[in-house]
Amino acid sequence: MKGLIKGSIAAALLVMTSSLAIAADGKIVASDNAIMQHEDPAMPTRVIKEGTKINMHFGDTVILGILNDSYTAKALIDRLPITVRVNRYSHDFCGVMDDPLPYHEEDEHFGWLNGDIDFATDGNYFTILFEDEEKSEIYGSQINIGVIACPLKKISDLSGSYEVLIELAK
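The structure assignment produced for this chain is given below.
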């Protein structure tokens, strides 16, 4: 029991210390207030337990996703089905949306967590980020709208450009 109490206190102090460090420089990052898992690095870091399930069709490969209940995610859901042309880059698939998603400035943050589905406000980018979360905080203008619901390798193994159909999962 003592170990459990000490562990709980240590966890609380870690959370408070992290919050204070973020507050000191005013920078909001992707991990703030996120539910995360670190047990399985093959899976997305962010955990969304409930949300709107989607399918993203990369040719014959279907990537499952879960959208959160943010203002921006709800705007995307209202537009589904939608097609976005994306290209593979070093740590993501990214494409410019013809009709930008609305967002609240207070939802913007720096960086991402591996597996995140984000809307980048600085270029109206729809992005699926699958690696480099540890050095991602140099990138701002991110709004998390969801997470993929499959191993990261399923998307990181893809290459090239795609007309991605995004639709509600049945």
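Interim note for the steering committee: Residues 1-24 have pLDDT under 50 and may be disordered. Helices lie at 2-25, 71-79, 152-156.
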